[in-house]
Amino acid sequence: MAENIIKIRGARVHNLKNVDVDIPKNKLVVITGISGSGKSSLAFDTLYAEGQRRYVESLSAYARQFLGVMQKPDVDKIEGISPAISIDQRKSAHNPRSTVGTITEIYDYLRLLFARIGKPHCPKCGKLIS
């Protein structure tokens, strides 16, 4: 049985100095620390970058030609990582109606996906609408 953990060993991205960390999968994980402690380096420049790089490597050569070469983060080993998406680390307009889906712009793709493969059901009785 596969472990439900992401193991990062020897991370040296930016100001990280041989950091070893185990991150549980399928859990809400919060990375905290003082300014300059390497939170963004660990989350975005190590974990996300490697997840995205491995995902891009799984694509066909034709698809990869449009994405360019992605550099491997300076790390000894990362195990148990899945393909990753990331919310940009930026200040966004404080719209109270914004969601993770609209901020990351993935909502448009999900809407298209569900419009193509989704099957409408009655909200009251749950039966398929034909």
From TrEMBL:
InterPro entries: P-loop_NTPase. This is UvrABC system protein A. Gene3D superfamilies: ABC transporter ATPase like domain, P-loop containing nucleotide triphosphate hydrolases. GO terms for biological process: DNA repair. Keywords: ATP-binding, Cytoplasm, DNA damage, DNA excision, DNA repair, DNA-binding, Excision nuclease, Nucleotide-binding, Repeat. The keyword Cell inner membrane does not apply. Belongs to the ABC transporter superfamily. UvrA family. GO terms for molecular function: ATP binding; DNA binding; nuclease activity. It is found in: Cytoplasm. It comes from Candidatus Nealsonbacteria bacterium CG23_combo_of_CG06-09_8_20_14_all_38_19.
